[in-house]
Amino acid sequence: MSSYQLDHLQYLETEAIHVMREVAAEFERPALLFSGGKDSICLLRLAEKAFRPADLPMPFLNVETGHEFPELLEFRDRRAKELGVKLIVRTVDEAIAKGHAHPAPGEISRNKLQIPVLLGAIEEFQFDCAIGGARRDEEKARAKERFFSFRDAFGQWDPKNQRPEIWNLYNAKVNPGENMRVFPLSNWTEMDVWEYIKKEKLEVPNIYFSHERDCYRKGGQWLPVPPPHTDATKPDPFEGARPKPTEPIKRMVCRVRTIADMISTGMIDSKAYTVDDIIGEVAAARVTERGTRADDKASEAAMDDRKKAGYF
Question: Are residues 175 and 213 in the same domain?
Fold first, then answer.
């Protein structure tokens, strides 16, 4: 009698689909965080496998900083339309205008300002669960997350107050105002993500592949030059984030390894034009994936602090 054994990717896929179906069974108003990045692209395929041919039982939610790559926004909007899923977008600019978010003097990055925007969207739509593509291999704070990561009534995370997950059993009970963040890709690695993209023939934004782009050197990284400011009637959204005269611009062949916004995403010198090229590059890498994120490099405790305050 022959037995069927799952290979590594099949096991990860089965585990993630089980988590997605648990969300649909346990929660009344879940949402799926979709940015258009490679991890959330994998989540979309897993959701299709978990629920098709029925409609996906959750809308997509995205928080914009106002500093996004145009290529990423186009991809996000198009994929949501192709899948026939409602896309909810909330922006930092709107939150600042309404007084819900308050930029610190002199601070250019808006990553911390995403916290009140996300918490506001969860409250606005009464979401009791938000699914995200975070993985434990990315950095130390995310390694502490469970599959079902509990958030209190203030949207805050306490790594010492999480629930055991023995035998893949998940305690999804939340009181009104509380919510759960769920991470189906917890056990995946960067390599697993790209192997899955290859296996499933998934489309990803073209900025993941090598292309020519103007960059400038800042903080030991190559950062993309923001698009020119053409509307004189509005403030420059990239004010303070443009290269200084002492930071010369270089036209280079590069790509993104992990996408934040244009303020935080470090470009890597690369000639990876296919998924196979990227897989080979990841296998040889000696720098962590999020080592190319300027917002994480600011402090070892940066992500830990943001997550405790309610960041995804």
Answer: no
